[in-house]
Amino acid sequence: MFENLTEDIKVFRQHHGGSWLSFLYYPMFTAVVLYRFSSWCYRHRLKPVAYLTVRLNDFLHGVWIGPRVKIGPGLFLAHARGLIVNPDTVIGSRCVILQNVTLGGPNIVVGDDVLLGAGALIISREHRVGGLAIGDNAKIGAGAVVLEDVPEGAVMVGNPARDVSKKEVNC
């Protein structure tokens, strides 16, 4: 818990700087701390405490990240509101998640250094074998609806989401 939290603090300071009191003020950081605590409790067989902490995070911040979700170090919730993450989700290191993002459905795997824009929906269909994967360094635009795997470094926009990173621009 503390290794990941140390990395979370570094990322938070890169974005906001500030004193130690600012960590308590910003809901985006306290939401991450509550998630890390619930995950730690779950792994140490304190499941009632873990689920109560999830409920507290939901009540205080509108963030529902279950204790079974695996998230690497350096998580940054740019605006901690309206976030829902399926319990079977795995999120890599140094990911940035904006407000009103849903990661729904089983077995979603998000790579490292991924940006999930405001209102993005990442939906894994239940009948899909292996879930849904978002590659490292991908960016999911605001309001994008992702229903298929996302390659590494892709920039996905629209509904349904399409990759615009390789589009040629003629000037």
TrEMBL record:
One of its GO terms (cellular component) is cytoplasm. Its EC number is 2.3.1.30. It is an enzyme of class 2 (transferase). It catalyses: L-serine + acetyl-CoA = O-acetyl-L-serine + CoA. GO terms for molecular function: serine O-acetyltransferase activity; structural constituent of carboxysome shell. The keyword Lyase does not apply. Gene3D superfamilies: Hexapeptide repeat proteins. It comes from the Bacteria. One of its GO terms (biological process) is cysteine biosynthetic process from serine. Keywords: Acyltransferase, Membrane, Transferase, Transmembrane, Transmembrane helix. It holds the Pfam family Hexapep_2. The chain crosses the membrane at residues 20-37. Belongs to the transferase hexapeptide repeat family. PANTHER family: SERINE ACETYLTRANSFERASE. This is Serine acetyltransferase. It comes from Gloeobacter violaceus (strain ATCC 29082 / PCC 7421).
